[in-house]
Write a structure and sequence with these properties.
The complex is a heterodimer. By secondary structure, chain A is an alpha/beta fold. Chain A is built from 11 helices and 16 strands. In chain A, helix 4 packs across helix 5, helix 4 packs parallel to helix 6 and helix 8 crosses helix 9. The termini of chain A are far apart. Chain B has 2 domains: 106 residues, Urease, subunit C, domain 1 (Roll), CATH 2.30.40; 279 residues, Metal-dependent hydrolases (TIM Barrel, Alpha-Beta Barrel). Classes of the chains: A alpha/beta, B alpha/beta.
Chain lengths: 462, 419
């Protein structure tokens, strides 16, 4: 008998009974498997914990992919000792805004899969379905210390679709890269992009007020769907209570876009909102308030410094560049002190890349943001600034219980730098993900994607 | 002893612009480590004497002569002002707003006849923004429109009047998939069109030429003819190693000085470039195999070219953010380029590559007094420019961005927002 002839319930039973572990997981779930690791003791490094501390000459011990001890003069026990003297150890770098895999290199028409600009509401698409795991940009980002990254759809739509958080490991499938347990996100975009993309086709939205109306209409629909779902649940339990024999209604046909928005309203999906201007962020906060959802982070938030107090009060992160500005009018008020001003106001400050080049040196981007603040007399040190590319980023992705800082019990996602990572001259020597050394510069260990073989320098091309 | 930038500016405000020859007091910058980029090399605890807009001399172990306003800079580092080698500064205010983009034409005059000098905008906000980070001059160039020849670029300075330092520093062109779009799809057709244009320019006469469809216009041929007679270099944006060799052959055939811009795969033909004495303008951070012209891009391109004897300069490939050339230089060092060569790539080398007045990009005697006092290592991104001098005059270190910072230093204080 072919499974297709069974009802859904029968199919599930059959699979559980006969099909084995391959089908035991839910569809689309992560199939990530940590690699075997060797116990390591990184000895005598300058450790930036990500939680605000700097530990000079400290030891960090790892076993089974976790951080098992942080302190001075730790015993090696069974661990292999890595000499960290003169080197700096930080949490693995996390980029909350990347398009690796969905805008890969080479950037040719057949690979540009990041922006489903066929209608302003693309809440039904998932960025992960566009990610090409053989993108040569993944190993380059790894060489820059990036261990975790969020891949987002592009910003041409009001709702760009769902984003996904990946571990930056060499893999055959995207599922193997998916960060286990990380929530998906919903990419939303304010401002110039959606109104330009659709207004130029004489379709809505053509204006900023059209943008907001488009957001609200979609949320109203999702809210209604959620209310209907709740009402059905009430009716179903009422049916059971009064013992009536009437069969429950067939659920309504699924609407994949509405499902995404409902997922947000239920708190299962995180909102990451591309929004440059302070005034537009304030409107988006009102939209979120009207429909009862949270905004985790504003991205490309070049004007966050203008409303840093408000963002602190709302608990919304800002993902920012160090110095990129002026490429469009809504980016014209970008200033280099943005990140530090947001941080100083007590709001969550993140340095992001949105760039396959920038992602390779997020440490330098954080360094530039730190230096710009110091130049103005603001007190910012490395111990604080490292959080902009580690723990704060993890918070925005709600993976901070697992990664983003050097604390006992957390994943051994770590970067050992040749020197101070805020120096332009320092480079990542060793990059560990769950304790496995995917990148070891002195040893010549680095991943090579299939595409690169005989074609790029990393792949042996010449 | 440290001197804040504000104190330096105070001194500057006591001076009038260094214009009246011989009548102004000189300026003596004392106590710094000075990278002269000239025969004197790097000097510790040196004194830089500036008079009449030029470097008068750089001394060590001698008292400051009378008649100089002294700027104490112990613990600081002095270098020539930084020069960006391929930008669209003062041509593009906002890339996404086409009414502010003057680097690109897609209609007539689109090829060799296009000259950016007529659109340079002295009010560009980016001038002060980048000057504050130590950039004192920049090549500003056309973007290829619909011909492999893009037009003439110029050099601008980021302070002082006039904005234009040198017009027509090079004729810009490009070879690659991007420019092949203009010639029917093949890179071969790009080379053929460039060769044909250069050949025809040799014998072009207005009254004997009747262009057909797709032929060069009168304006473009006249411009190419002027180019061939001028001796100006041909600056070609080209990444693929094979295409770079084609550009070298073209330059040899027509006896042109060639400058390679981009050159992602230039490291592969470094010896040939060195032999032909062709410099390369490198974007150090552009290591992505982002097209089929640059699959062999690499981070240490600049280091490999330098090692082979090629003169290298840097570009941030931007309009508004040319200040990133300093980060480019630092990264070049991180990837194997000697520190002195990386500093030269954003000072002395662009001065000579782009044919700027003698001494530009150095602190040699008689050089234009374009210099920067740095808080420390000028290639280190955690240091910054404390004072910038262009043409002997200290520059205002504020910009539209510092004013925004001042307004929102305390974002909860409404009294600051509208001043």
């Amino acid at each position: 008998m072919r499974p297709g002839t069974l009802s859904g319930g029968g199919l599930a039973l059959l699979l559980l009974a006969a099909a084995g572990p391959l089908h035991a997981r839910a569809p689309y779930e992560s199939t990530y498997e940590p690699r075997a690791t060797e116990p390591l003791l990184i000895r005598g490094a300058t450790v930036l914990t990500g939680t605000g501390a700097r530990l000079d000459g400290a030891d960090v011990r790892l076993a089974d992919g976790r951080i098992t001890a942080v302190g001075q003069s730790l015993a090696a026990e069974q661990a292999r000792v890595v000499d960290g003297e003169g080197r700096w150890l930080t949490p693995g770098i996390i980029d909350v805004h990347s398009h690796l895999g969905n805008y890969p290199s080479p950037a040719i028409a057949s690979t540009q899969d990041g922006n489903e600009m066929t209608g302003p509401n693309a809440a039904h698409v998932w960025a992960e379905h566009s990610v090409w795991p053989q993108d040569p940009q993944f190993p380059l980002a790894l060489a820059g210390g990036v261990t975790t990254l969020q891949i987002l759809p592009g910003s041409g739509n009001l709702f760009g679709g769902r984003g996904v958080t990946l571990k930056n490991i060499p893999a055959r499938t995207v599922q193997e890269m998916k960060f286990p347990g990380a929530k998906q996100s919903l990419k939303m975009a304010c401002g110039e992009n959606p109104k330009r993309a659709y207004g130029s086709r004489n379709q809505p939205p053509a204006t900023r007020m059209g943008n907001i109306a488009g957001f609200r209409a979609a949320w109203a629909k999702a809210q209604h769907a959620l209310e209907k779902e709740a009402a059905r649940a009430v009716n179903a339990s009422a049916d059971t209570d009064d013992g009536s024999a009437e069969a429950p209604d067939v659920p309504p046909e699924r609407d994949l876009g509405v499902e995404t928005l409902v997922g947000v309203l239920k708190g299962e999906i995180l909102v990451h909102n591309h929004c440059y201007r302070a005034d537009e962020m304030a409107w988006m906060i009102d939209v979120a308030s009207e429909f009862g959802y949270e905004i985790k982070a504003f991205h490309h938030a070049v004007e966050s410094y203008k409303i840093a107090d408000r963002l602190a009060a709302e608990g919304i992160c800002s993902a920012m560049w160090a110095d990129w500005w002026g490429f469009k009018l809504e980016a014209f008020d970008g200033i280099t002190e943005n990140v530090a001003l947001v941080d100083e106001a007590g709001a969550c400050a993140i340095v992001h890349s949105d760039s396959a080049t920038g992602i390779q040196h997020l440490n330098q981007e954080a360094a530039k943001a730190m230096a710009a603040a110091r130049r103005q007399g603001m007190a910012v040190d490395e111990a604080r600034a490292i959080a902009w590319i580690t723990l704060n980023a993890a918070r925005a992705l709600e993976i901070d219980a697992e990664t983003g800082s050097i604390e006992v019990g957390k994943a051994a996602d770590l970067v050992l730098w040749s020197g101070n990572p805020f120096s332009v001259y320092s480079r990542a020597d060793l990059v560990l993900i769950d304790g496995h050394p995917y990148y070891d510069r002195p040893a010549g260990v680095r991943p090579v994607t299939d595409f690169e073989l005989e074609q790029t320098v990393n792949g042996g091309g010449e | 002893m440290k001197l804040a930038a504000s104190a330096i500016l105070l001194i500057a405000l006591l001076q009038s612009p260094a214009s009246a020859v011989g009548s102004e007091p000189g300026i003596a910058i004392t106590g710094a480590r000075v990278h002269t980029l000239a025969a004197a090399g790097t000097l510790e605890d040196a004194t830089v004497l500036v008079r009449d807009g030029r470097i008068e001399s750089v001394l060590t172990g001698e008292p400051v002569p009378d008649g100089y306003a002294v700027v104490e800079a112990a613990g600081k580092v002095v270098t020539p002002g930084l020069i960006e080698s391929d930008s669209s500064l003062a041509l593009v205010e906002i890339g996404g707003e086409l009414t502010t983009v003057d680097s690109l034409v897609t209609e007539y005059p689109s090829g060799a006849a296009f000259d950016v000098r007529h659109a340079l905008n002295p009010a560009a906000v980016a001038l002060a923004v980048n000057r504050r980070d130590g950039v004192t001059a920049a090549v500003t160039a056309p973007t290829p429109g619909n011909d492999p020849f893009a037009g003439w670029g110029a050099v601008v300075r980021l302070g002082g009047d006039p904005l234009l330092v040198e017009p027509e520093v090079a004729l810009f062109a490009s070879i690659g998939a991007g420019s092949a779009v203009f010639t029917g799809g093949s890179r071969a057709a790009v080379i053929q069109r460039m060769r044909r244009g250069l050949q025809m320019a040799g014998t072009y006469r207005q009254n004997r030429y009747r262009p057909g469809p797709g032929d060069f216009s009168h304006q473009d041929l006249a411009a190419l003819q002027r180019f061939r007679r001028s001796g100006a270099p041909l600056a070609v944006t080209v990444d693929r190693a094979g295409a770079i060799l084609e550009a070298l052959a073209l330059a040899a055939e027509f006896d042109l000085d060639l400058i390679v811009i981009g050159g992602a795969e230039a490291w592969q033909v470094a010896d040939r470039l060195a032999e032909a004495q062709v410099p390369v303008v490198v974007n150090v951070l552009a290591n992505l195999p982002s097209s089929y012209d640059r699959l062999l891009a690499r981070h240490d391109n600049a280091a490999l070219l330098h090692e082979a004897g090629v003169t290298v300069t840097f570009t941030a490939s931007d309009a508004n953010n040319v200040r990133k050339i300093r980060q480019m230089a630092g990264n070049a060092v991180a990837h194997g380029m000697p520190w002195d060569a990386a500093l030269a790539a954003i000072t002395r080398a662009p001065g000579s590559v782009w044919g700027l007045p003698d001494g530009t990009g150095t602190l040699a005697e008689g050089a234009p007094a374009d210099l920067v006092i740095w808080s420390g290592d000028p290639l280190e991104i955690t240091e910054w420019a404390e004072a910038v001098m262009i043409g002997g005059a200290w520059q205002d270190m504020s910009s539209r961005q510092t004013r925004l910072f001042d307004r929102y230093r305390d974002p909860a204080d409404p009294d600051r927002w509208y001043r």
